[in-house]
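Chapter review: from sequence to fold.
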Amino acid sequence: MRKKTRTSAAALQIESASALALSILAFVSYLRHFMIDIHCHILPDLDDGSDSMETSVAMAEMAIEDGVTHVIGTPHANSEYAFVPKLVRERRDELQKKLGERLTIATGCDFHLTFENIKALRADPRRFTLNQKNYLLVEFGDYSIPPTIDKTLHELQLLGLHPVITHPERNPLIRTQWGLLWNWMQQGCYVQVTAQAFSGRFGSRTQAAAGRLLDANAIHFIASDAHNVTTRPLRLKAAFEAVAERKGEEVARALFESNPRAALEGKPLPYLPEPAQLKGAQGEGEGKPRKRFWFF
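The C-alpha cell string follows.
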C-alpha cells in the first residue's frame, strides 16, 4: 500500500513537472512573439488623440497588457492640427521616461495630402516618416480624393518613400472604387487596416471591407489607430486572433509583427503577398483597374 502511494506521488510529481515545463515553453514562445503598432495617436495633446499624459500612459499600459512592444506615435498633420517635430519629440521623450523600457515609443505622422504638407515633405522627407526612416502613412479624406493622386504618390516614391495607405476599409470613396486601391498597390504602395475594423467597431460595412481586403491579400499592416482608452483603444490582440483564425498565424505574424518591424527599421517588407484584383462591393459600384506604374 505504501509502495503504491509512493508510485502515485512520483507520478504526480512527473505530471506536475511536465505541466510546468509546457507552461514555461508556452511562455517563452509567447515572449518570442510580439506586436508593433505603426499608427497610433498616443502622444498627448497634439491632435484629437490622447488629451493628457495620464491618458497616454493608460494607453501604453493597455498596449503592454495586449502584448505590444513598440508603438509609433503618429499625430495628424493637416489643416486642423499643425505638425511640429520638435514638440512631437518632446512629448515622446516625456512619455518614454514614464514607461521606462517596458514599451518603446517612436514617432511618425498621420500625413494628409495637402499642398502645404507636400511642400514641406519635399524639403525634408524624413520629417514625417515612421521612425524617421522611409515609410510614410498617407491618409485620404472621406469625401474627396485628388484627381492627381497617382502623380503625387509617384512623387513620394521618387523621394525614396514607401507610401502606406491608411484604413481604406473605413473610407467610403475607396470602398466604392476598389480599383483605385488596387492600382495604388500596383504602383508600389502598401495598405494598413485598422485592428478594430475586424470586430465591427466601425460598422458592418467596414468590417466586411476589412475581411475582403484580408481575403484578397491586400493588407501589409494592421495597426490600432488608437485615440483613447474607451472608444478607440490601443488593442491589437483580438484582431491578431481574428486574422490568425481566418488566414493562419503566419500571416497574422507578418501583419502585426514582421512587416511593422521592417517599417520601424526602414527595411524592405518580408511579407509581400500578391493581391487579387479588387472590384467594387456589391451595390456600391464597380472599381475598374487603372494604368499601372512600375518603378525601377
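Two observations follow directly from the output. Strands lie at 35-40, 68-73, 76-77, 104-107, 110-112, 135-139, 162-166, 190-194, 221-223. Confidence is low (pLDDT under 50) at residues 25-32, 281-296.
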